[in-house]
Design goal:
Blueprint: H1 3-33, H2 35-50, H3 53-64, H4 68-92, H5 96-104, H6 109-139, H7 151-160, H8 164-196
Length: about 200
Amino acid sequence: MNTKILLEHLYIVFFSVVLSILAGLPLGVAAYLWKPARKPILRLSELLQTIPALALLGMVMLVLGAGKTTVITGLLLYSLLPIVHNTYIGLEAIDPGVKRAARGMGMSRWDRLMTVELPLSFPMIFAGIRIAAVTSVGIAVFAASVGGGGLGSVINRGIRTQNIQLILSGTLTLMAMALVLDGLMAWLEHSLKSGRR
């Protein structure tokens, strides 16, 4: 397997997940804090997830043209659901008694959010990020269809030439990448929880 193709795939996944976190976390917090925006934010993230990945990339390509920017933008939009929902659910699920205690200590809304609520909801938020990251590894296969490269180009070439070795090589590499990423994120989650304890 060409190292350049592997790095290209990882590059696409990494930047799309980072941007998804930067967009999804504030949206999830906004849905939690601001009730009028809650339903539109949650529904929009659900709606984006119902669009087939290839169709979503095609729509983005009409605006941005072919290339990695299109793929990263498409994956960003597709990854919002688990991050936005898990952030909102994690914050909403905190024991009301804890929230009342923080208010009783005279903490401002911002202080409560940053020092009490977000740390307590971290496991749920991180689970959403983990889902988004592992899902992006598979969906990034469609990058080849919009000029983004990655492992999808290997699988597409194998399909066009009816080369079973290329198809298996691309598919197995993709599976291994997803498993390794999931394992690394599980280890990171465990390490962060241990550090907090």
